[in-house]
What we know:
This protein is an alpha/beta fold and 572 residues long. The protein has helices at residues 3-18, 23-38, 80-86, 105-109, 142-212, 219-244, 256-271, 292-309, 354-358, 377-387, 437-440, 452-463, 475-483, 502-512, 548-560; strands at 42-47, 54-61, 72-74, 89-92, 114-121, 126-134, 252-254, 275-280, 288-290, 314-325, 338-347, 391-396, 402-409, 444-448, 468-472, 490-494, 517-522, 541-543. Strands 3-2-1-6-5-4 form a 6-stranded antiparallel sheet. Strands 8-10-11-13-12 form a 5-stranded mixed sheet, with helices on one face. The chain starts with a helix and ends in a 12-residue tail after the last helix.
Amino acid sequence: MNPARALQTVAELGARALSSTPVGDLLDAGMRLARDVTQSDHAVFFEAPAGGDALLMRAGVGWRPGVIGRVSLSTGQGSFGRYILQQPTRIVDALPSHPEFGLPAVLRDHLVESMACVRLDGIGHPLGVVAVFNVNDGLPSTEHLTFLQALGNILATAVLRQVTEEGLLQSQIRLQSVQKMEAIGRLAGGIAHDFNNLVQAIGGYTEILLRQIKEDDPLRRSAEEIKKAGDRAAALTRQLLAFSRQQVLQPSLLDVNHIVNHVEQLLTRLIGEDIELRTYLSDDLWPVKADAAQLEQVLMNLAVNARDAMKDGGLLTIETANVEYTRSEGEPFVVVAGPYVLLAVTDTGTGMNAETKARAFEPFFTTKPPGQGTGLGLSMVYGIVKQSGGYIFVDSELGAGTRIRIYLPRVDDMPLPLEPETPTAAERVPASAEFDDAAAASATLLLVEDEEGVRELIHEWLAGHGFSVHSAEDGQSALRVAESLEQVDLLIADVVMPTMGGPALAKRLLQVRPDLKVIFVSGYADEAIGDRRMLENGASFLQKPFTLEDLLLKVREVLADRRPSRGPASPR
C-alpha cells in the first residue's frame, strides 16, 4: 500500500463529505477506495440500525448482484455480526474455521478467507462496520487497518450527519402535524363557541314556543322540527369542542379497568353479535385523572369505528396495562417520558392506508359514504385524550386491522368511587324546602352574558318564574349593577366575556358577598380561564347549549343548597 496515495484518497473523500455529497454516494466511493487501496477482493459497509438486531450490507464492491442493500447478518449470540461489533478493530485469518462464530452463507459463497474491519461508533451505539475481505491467504496488514480507520472516521461523520438530518426532518414533520391539529382545533373551537350561542337562542325560544303551542296546533310540528334540528346542531358543537379541547371536563381519580367493565355490556350491544369482544385488563392498574363520562365516550366511539371496519364480523379487543414510556421514536408526536396507563383498542377490520392514517384525527375527514358519518368520532377521541394530558397513536395497515393506543399519565393518589358523595344531613334539602315560583320571588339574580340574544332569553325565562333578575353584558358592567343592589343571591355568569370574565367577576363579588351562590355557563372554556377548564366534582356549571328547564332546575338546586359557596377556583 502506498501511504502517500492512501492519505490523498482520504483527503479527497473528506472534501466530498464537506461538500454535502449524499451519504449513499460517499459510502459507495469509500468502499471502492477501501478495496483499491488495500488491494482486497471485497469491501463492504455493514450498517447497524439503532435498536436493531442485524447488520445490513448497505454499500460495497466485489459482491454478486442482489447482495448489497438486501442481505443482513444476525448480531445474535455466537454470530459473526456480534463478533465484528465487539472490538473497535480486528484482523482475522482462517474465517471459515474460526471457533467463535459460524461464517455467514453470503461470505462462504464468496470464498473469503481473511478480513480486516473497523467499527464506526456513533452516539450511544455503533453505526456500523467497514470491512475488507480476501479470498486467498493474504492477511491484511496493520497499515490497511490504519487506512480503514481514517476512512471510517469520515464515513461515520457522514452517517451521523444523515441520522441528525433525518431526526430533524422527523421533528419538523411532528411539529407541522401538531401545529396543523392545533390550528384546526382553534378554528373548530371558535366556530363551536359562536355556533353554541346561536343554538342556545334557537333552542331556548323554541322551547318557549312549544310550551305555548297546543298539541293539536298545526304549527306544533314545525316547532318540534326546529327543536330537533337544534338538538342535532348542539351535538355537533359538542363534538367540535371535544376535538378542540375546549369543553369543560369534570375529572376525578379513576381506575380505567372500572370504566371498561362499566361499558362492556353496552359495547357488546353496540358492535353486534357477529363481532366478538374480549378484554385483557391488567391487575393493579395505576390510577389516572380523567372525566369518567368522556372516557366512556372514547371507548364507544372507538368501538363504533371498529364495528364499521368489520362488516363481515371479527374480533374487538380492549386491553389495559401499566407502562413506562421512555421513547417516542417513530411516533407522530413527542411523548414526555414517564409512567402511563395504556388503554388499547384493537380490531381485525380492513385497516388504513398511510394517507388515511395520517388524517385519521382531522375533523370531518371520513372514508364512509356521504350521509353515513360526520368524520368527528376520532376527532372527539383525540380532543378528550389530549385535554386529559394523554397521547393517542394509530397503528394500522390495509388488510391488517387497526390498533388505537391511548396513554394517560399516572397519578399517585388512589381512585375515588364512581358514585357521587352523599351530602350530610345538615346539607340535605327536603323536597318541601325546594324552590318554587312563590319562593323565587325573594331571590335576586345577577345575570352576566355578553351575547344579547342569550342574555334576553335567560332573563325572560327566569323572570317569568318569579325571580328578580338584573342583567349585564360584561364583568365591569356587572360590578356596577351589583353595587346598586342591596341583595344578590345568585350570580349566573358566562365564563369568557370582554373586559372581565365570569371567574374574575365571581372572585370580586365574593370578597364583599361571601354567601353569594355562583353558576358558570359557557359555550367553551378558552385559554383565558386556564386550569378552571378542569372543574372539580360538584361544580355549578352549565355547558351551552342547555335547555331552559335544566337552567331552572340548576338555579333552584343551587339556591336551595345550604352549603357555602367555595368560590370560582372550585365552584359548586
